[in-house]
Amino acid sequence: MCLLSGINLTGPLPEDIVSLSELQRLDLSDNTGLTGPLPSNIGNLKNLLRLVLSGCNLSGPIPESIGSLLQLESLFLNSNRFSGSIPHSIGNLENLIWLDLSGNQLDGNLPVSNKTTPGLDNLSMVEHFHLGENKFSGEIPLGLFRSNMSLRHLILNGNQLNGTIPDTLGLVLDLEVIRLDRNSLSGMVPQNLNDLINMGELYLANNNLSGPIPELSGMNRLTYIDLSNNRFTSSDVPLWFTTLPSLTTLRMENTSLNGKLPAALFNQSNLQTVLLRNNQLNGTVDIGTGFGSDLHHIDLRNNFIDELILGEYSHSILLDENPFCERQEAKGICKNVEPLNALKFIPEVHCVPLSCFTDFTGSDCGRPYLGRLVFLSFNFSNLENLTYYNFLDGKLKTAIDSLLVTKICLVSSTIETINDYLVLEIAFFPPPGTHFDRTIISRIGNTLNDHLFKSPYGPYHFIPHVPYAFPERQPNIPLIIGLSISGFVLTLLTVSAGAYAYRQRKIARRADKLNNPFSSWSYGDLPQIQGVRFISLEDVKQCTNNFAEINEIGIGGYGKVYKGKLDNGQLVAIKRAQEGSLQGALEFKTEMELLSRVHHKNVVNLVGFCFDRGEHMLIYEFVPYGSLRASLSGRSGVTLNWKRRLKVALGAARGLAYLHELAEPPIIHRDIKSENILLGDQLTAKVGDFGLSKLLRKDEDVTSQVKGTMGYLDPEYLSTQLLTEKSDVYSFGVVMLELVTGRLPIMTNKEYIVREVKVTMNDTGYIYNLVDPVIRYSNLTGMVEFVELALKCVEYSGDKRPSMGKVVKEIESIIQAGEKNLKDVLSSYPGTSDSSTSQSNKNSTSHSNSSKSGPSST
């Protein structure tokens, strides 16, 4: 357990945090000095249950490896500066209950599963989707919602979503809060939303919704509704205005309402706020006949109301820009001025003297910790009713520790007008005359940011006003006196201390060299590597048009990849490290040194590197058709038939065999997967990404921290941490099964293709139902032999797996047998001869060559 919330940590998140493999809870929230990206291998924290990083300054993409945290129950990354899209791999987190990514700069579509990748719809146990205040675009996918979901809170406000509200939303019967406001949604509100009988708060404001005002009479638990600023068809006041027994807040501004407001609307016992500004309401507004005791704010400005009956109602009412305001008796009621914010409240009765907020030295108070509770939804709006704040100095104080936090005071409450969030300014006080230490501040942050405290008003965020000012330690006078008396002893210790300091400096230098692999490099004094040229930052900027977005062709844990053209006309792919990533720097140096040693047509060629003004970039040959995974998923537009898949497997196997058997010393790749097998001209397979690779010295075992990608990792390597070339063989066997099935190694329902294929082959020996539908109905000659070879590669024991050289020969035999079988079949037809078969092959070759312009025709 590592709970360090709000204690003023600074700098990037250390890469070696992933070495804490037994960690179950990690909370670094409210440390605004934490910057930089999440470690790309964050997925190594396999036992993590709760990850709380809210309220920091973390940036960059959310790494794909986060989908390897299969035990994770809570993921709080809100209120940072993360960018890019939501990784599909989050769909693997089937134990996830709380997902909060709100308040970032994330974009793209909301990911749902397809035949090759998981998506958010697979999270059947999740209760909280908090994705508001980002830049998500596109339609809300129809497949995002399923009837078996436990979803309670759907928060998508403040994005750029368009299209209609999917009617599948009405299938999620546990929903209590829906926030879709401040998007660009259009069309009618689905009728089956009325089936959501547990709905408490519904926010659909500030969209382009049209059609009739939705029927909500079935939502008997509805407390807060806001449908303002849409394009609904002009209609009379709906009957359900007066039939919702729990309704506290009704917001329907600029919604084309017309007709007369029924007096029964104001009679409802729980009603607190009615906001119906900018409509076409007319006739008499009768509040005096009877109104609920909690009703405190009514806004009916800019309507056609010509009569008002107030009775004994004496709270806020706004009627400007109505015909009634032109009458003599309206003076004093219609003020014709913009009102003060009626949705803000500052209590006159303070739970501590006001001086406690500025003078912490008195006996009545200590140094307070100030912050905000920002409620993303809430079920009341009468801010003046102090009974709603009883939880602060009651259940919340108990949840933290009433011995350590003596008072929690309400400073003010506001319903802010941009996001319609309820904001409670609060102050935590320690015992009189004291201050909080880091342990207590961290406990407050952890209790709130990890939602260990269940609020009575729905989901919230905690935001400290400023970092807590921890007082400096006072000098220990008795200790100073004692040390003065012991001066003689200190003199004797000086020599030992000097020797110790010298030794520590040597250790620090050695650690710095390990942590910073470029500590001995400097511009103008770079290593000379044969066949690999140094390219300056200015030249890289020129060939990528200053890293223009149009030249961005990929992104990974290391950083972004750009397409460029060198001054000699050669097309290249430039992998640019994320700023400040030491892990990226180590992978950069490793990959550069290894790739400079190898030259093979099935291994990606390193053209050059850039180490200039803090930038780390690797420049490779440009591989036009992307990764094998992109082709199998359909993202690249390249369709691979069975014959082509066999040749891709053969090419990748040859590249890997070269690394194992011909490189000197041999190289273990350690991260073989379909993403790292690239398709070049004529779809030639090339092994790439050597950032995790290791050299295998003669007669030397390589013991190392386990690294790689879940689903491809050798289980024997996982259990022993002993790395051999057979670990790559296992990973390649998984890739072979990917080529057959088209599936990811780990599917969304926890299906692991290795296990699925083994069980199927053992039970029936019949693989057909697992074959990728893209190739299922084509000639699959050699399929069974290929699968049998793959299963040899994924044997648990490395000793039972073939070498990569043996794998190459087996695949070559499968391909040759298939070609011989084709010749035999052709020769069996009347009039077919060897010459005609040869001519047929020539025609096939001609057709293949003519198809180069369109890879999708492969």
Question: Which SSEs are present, and which pair or pack?
Answer:
Elements: E1 2-3, E2 10-12, E3 25-27, E4 33-36, E5 50-52, E6 57-60, E7 74-76, E8 81-84, E9 98-100, E10 105-108, E11 128-130, E12 135-139, E13 153-155, E14 160-163, E15 177-179, E16 184-187, E17 201-203, E18 208-211, E19 224-226, E20 231-232, E21 235-236, E22 249-251, E23 257-259, H1 264-267, E24 273-275, E25 280-286, E26 297-299, E27 304-309, E28 316-318, E29 344-345, E30 369-375, H2 392-400, E31 407-415, E32 422-429, H3 438-449, E33 460-464, H4 477-485, H5 487-515, E34 533-534, H6 537-543, E35 552-555, E36 559-565, E37 571-577, H7 582-595, E38 606-612, E39 615-621, H8 628-633, H9 642-661, E40 667-668, E41 677-679, E42 685-687, E43 694-695, E44 702-703, H10 715-720, E45 722-723, H11 725-741, H12 753-763, H13 783-793, H14 804-827, H15 834-850
Parallel strand pairs: 1-3, 2-4, 3-5, 4-6, 5-7, 6-8, 7-9, 8-10, 9-11, 10-12, 11-13, 12-14, 13-15, 14-16, 15-17, 16-18, 17-19, 18-20, 19-22, 21-23, 22-24, 23-25, 24-26, 25-27, 26-28, 34-38
Antiparallel strand pairs: 29-31, 30-32, 30-33, 31-32, 35-36, 36-37, 37-39, 38-39, 40-43, 41-42, 44-45
